[in-house]
Design goal:
Layout: E1 5-12, H1 17-27, E2 33-36, E3 49-51, E4 55-57, H2 62-68, E5 73-76, H3 89-107, E6 113-115, H4 123-131, E7 136-138, E8 159-160, H5 166-175, E9 180-185, H6 193-207, E10 212-214, H7 217-221
Parallel strand pairs: 1-2, 1-9, 1-10, 2-5, 6-7, 8-9
Antiparallel strand pairs: 3-4
Helix pairs in contact: 3-4
The structure holds zinc ion.
Length: 222
């Protein structure tokens, strides 16, 4: 039996559109990781911000988190989403350690993944993430094949889900026999019904591709 390529994905920032995204992913049996900032979820949904003047985006309320992400993997995106190059090493360490601990308490599970806010990952920040018990940390660089990574602490996914070369890179990963194809995004980038339809078509095409299967990031890196 030939090895199927694992299709892995992760989504950042813990916003309200994740509710719809999770339902959609479940309907295709897709696994995914959600990168969350434990310190930014309050008792009610957070104050909104504008995405490209097209929509209001809000973080989920803390009480919505466990139910929303049931069955998905949770990873650390720091406590409050600072850029690693704008705070001290001590502040960064607290952001990384406390972010992870609070997610582990909230979800009652082990958190092994990390995603750098804004993709910023100066060397000292990388070493702190490595030292604090994470197995991998995602950057905003791109690489095909994405797996196996040279250093999982500066993990480069294949592409963003809206990358116009998505299918070209997907086919390339299959062609070179990569163990996985890895895409990422924010659910708030799905602005219109047409955007949702288009993303659902991606899920459907992947779901019906007998060369691939859904996979989880932590399983690939353990
Ligand atoms: Zn983010």
């Amino acid at each position: 039996m030939k090895n199927r390529i694992k299709i892995v994905q992760c989504w950042d920032d813990g916003v309200e559109d994740d509710i719809r995204l999770c339902e959609l992913l479940r309907s295709y049996g897709a696994q995914a990781t959600f990168n969350l900032n434990a310190g930014l979820h309050d008792s009610s949904p957070g104050s909104p911000w504008q995405f490209r003047g097209m929509k209001e985006v809000r973080r989920l309320a803390i009480k919505e988190l466990v139910k929303t992400y049931e069955g998905f993997e949770i990873a650390n995106h720091t406590l409050t989403h600072p850029s690693a190059d704008k705070i001290t090493a001590n502040e960064w360490k607290r952001e990384v350690v406390e972010g992870r601990e609070r997610l582990e308490d909230l979800f009652n599970c082990k958190v092994v993944g990390f995603a750098y806010p804004f993709g910023h990952c100066p060397p000292h920040a990388v070493e702190i993430v490595r030292e604090t018990g994470h197995l991998y940390a995602r950057t905003l660089a791109n690489a095909t094949p994405s797996f196996p990574p040279t250093d999982p602490m500066v993990l480069a996914p294949d592409c963003h889900f809206l990358n116009p070369r998505f299918w070209e890179l997907y086919e390339k990963a299959k062609f070179v026999g990569a163990p996985a194809f890895y895409f990422w995004g924010h659910s708030y980038e799905l602005c219109s019904e047409a955007d949702w339809k288009s993303f659902e078509q991606k899920l459907s095409r992947i779901h019906s591709d007998t060369d691939v299967e859904w996979g989880s990031l932590s399983a690939l890196l353990e």
